[in-house]
Amino acid sequence: MIDLHLHTTSSDGSEEPKEILNKAQQLGLKYISITDHDSIGAYEKLAEINVADYFKGKLIPGCEFSVVHKGKPIEVLGYGMDLETIKSTGILSDEKFFERENGYIERMKEVCRNLNIKYTDDLSIKSDKYFAAQRMHADLRKYPENEKHFPKEVWESLNVFYRNCVNNEGSPFFLNQTKDYPTVQEIATLIKKAGGKAFLAHLYGYIVEDHEEFLNSIIYLNALDGIECYHSLHDMDKTNHLLNYCRDHKIFASGGSDYHGKLKPTVNMGESIQGVKIPYEILKPWLN
Ligand SMILES: [Zn+2]
């Protein structure tokens, strides 16, 4: 059993890297990868300890990069990279991240002021790598009087807030995030330069009209090594479809839960959907 998609407090997970290792050990996982959003902070923390004291399996260096494709924000998972090489490019600089996301927060505060929506004055992102939209959505929900300003689904679901507001040009909360993101090819080039492999993350998590067409448009770039097939947003039909797609296109398959700890309480480490363990066999063909 493996899990190649795990988040820690270095992005928007609720657990420290050490806790992740302990849990992976308890579950008897063979291979894991910590893949924080645009961050390798967890690996910097782990450099100070002996990983083998906590986890007997293998930890594959990883990161989940924000990229843009056809104007949509999507994500590419990089595995097996030399982290120093990645770091030296400056692409994961915390300063850049905080500057960008705090800029978004300030813009959303302005929208709130214009619409008489309440928010916390000093709201900002300081140490954890939470995205602005996550922070803002949680903050808006702190004030029950705000509920009347939002459709029920937006109020209740961060994902719907993303879809209907943050990623929707027609919404006052629209953020043109992708203008700051690299392309699939740019990130894939960087991952490969660092000796790693690049995978498209959770296809069915993207808000597009036709997932198959969208997938083709990415895979036909010939930039990626494979696709994340097992994922908590992919039921078995979707997973099997993607596994077949990988076989037909002679690309690799990967899989991970996208574990976030408390932030996504229904997602279990080591499983894609409930009861489906992520098999080691998918990793074998591309493990160096
Ligand atoms: Zn993720």
Considering the chains and any ligands shown, give keywords for the structure.
288 residues, alpha/beta, globular, binds zinc ion
**Annotated CATH architecture of the largest domain:** Alpha-Beta Barrel
Q: Which structural class do the helices and strands define?
A: alpha/beta
> How many strands in all?
8
Spatial order of the strands forming the largest sheet: 4-5-6-7-8
**Multimer state:** single chain
What's the pLDDT, averaged over the residues?
A: 95
Helix content: 25-40%
Number of helices: 10
Apparent shape: globular
Assign the CATH class of the largest domain. Answer: Alpha Beta
Can you say what the CATH homologous superfamily of the largest domain is? Answer: Metal-dependent hydrolases
CATH topology of the largest domain: TIM Barrel
List the helices and strands in order: EHEHEEEHHHHHHEHEHE
| Uncertain segments | none
Q: What count of structural domains? A: 2
Bound molecules: zinc ion
Major sheet attributes: 5 strands, mixed
Query: What is the C-alpha radius of gyration, as a whole number of Å?
Result: 19 Å
Distance between the termini: 18 Å
